[in-house]
Amino acid sequence: MIKKKMIAMLLAGGQGSRLGVLTSSVAKPAVFFGGKYRIIDFPLSNCVNSGVDTVGVLTQYRPLELNTHIGIGIPWDLDKRVGGVHILPPYEKTSDTEWYTGTANAIYQNLEFMERYNPDYVLILSGDHIYKMDYEEMLAYHNAKGADVTLASMPVPWEETHRFGIVVTDENKRITAFQEKPKDALSNLASMGIYIFSWPVLRDALITLKDVPECDFGKHVIPYCFEQQKKLYTYEFTGYWKDVGTLSSYWEANMELVDLVPEFNMYEDFWQIYTETDSMLPAYMGPNARTEKCIVGGGSEIYGSVQHSVIGSNVSVGEGSEVVDSIVMAGAKIGKNVRMRKAIVAENVVIGDNAVLGEGAFAESKLDTRVYASDLVTIAKGSVVPEGVSVGLNTAIVGVTEKEDYPGGRLEDGGFIVKAGEKA
Predict the structure, then answer these.
(1) How many CB atoms lie within 10 A of CB 89?
(2) How many helices (H) and strands (E) does the chain have?
(3) Which of these, 371, 407, 375, lies nearest to 389 by C-alpha position?
(4) Which of 17, 101, 309, 422 is the most exposed place for a label (fewest CB within 10 A)?
């Protein structure tokens, strides 16, 4: 039997519905971030930098692009004969075949994979956060405390505690209570969804709770460990960590990268972020191009003005166009004399000449007020915006649209266009 000290199980199967049309055709962990990276690159890079060389990536929702990106793990040096990275989708069994129905259920369905490595510890990770963390330090803390379970946590604003699992601790950081998304929180110390379990403790909990519907770590596994009087401790994290689970937080995290002194530094030699990269030409700036406080990916051609924006690889921005406070992902084509402000433009989108995106006044979304609640323009992968139209604030577009889809040449504030056969 193969023996590993610690293996990681990376949960990457969620839809990420709060990112709206950005995840209509790709899984949230596969969404681009910071120009050339994808969200899943951050926990995968953390594993490599922490010496964790065996990672199971649990996929489910629209996994093709994510699976293609990870491949056999070459960018992260995880293409190993023993260990390495493994894609773990749901699979047909002799009985009780089912989709992953909860975070803990997904891990339980891969019990055989974990048993293969007979680890001392199992690291549970989420595939949709932006951060750098040394998991080896967290493991040393786990051992120093003699813990059965260690949860990474960090303080959040009190008004946001209802979005998280909240931990209450004593003076030794031992957890005395755990509240899952409480209305009235007893603490503002939030679980980051990062756990280290001693393997026998995790295995017992998963097998005992295997028949619990939609079995989840916060709702079921952690309370069960309390009932069994296991030793649970919190590891307080003091670095940068961003849950990019909403359009606003995703946009804000990208915009922070182009600050004069970015809070999150992606370019440190001692803790690199790795990703799958293609050979491409360098970025080209045309004779009239103007760029200020921006990231521009390789292979991009800029002929207009780009300010305080994140531009992916192989993007073109036409002559006379102005792109401000925006995210433009790989392969997008921005025509001539386009005005774009506070837009999130996904991969391979085409914006026609003379289009105007992001001008108007905020209005409540007519599509989904839970998802669209800011003044952003969000355009899904592969969509087309025709020339000469205007798009208001808090809007969403999916599909190859035509001028006829814009009454009076405009998509009103709070409006949306989802072409037939497309998914919002």
Answers:
(1) 15
(2) 8, 33
(3) 407
(4) 17
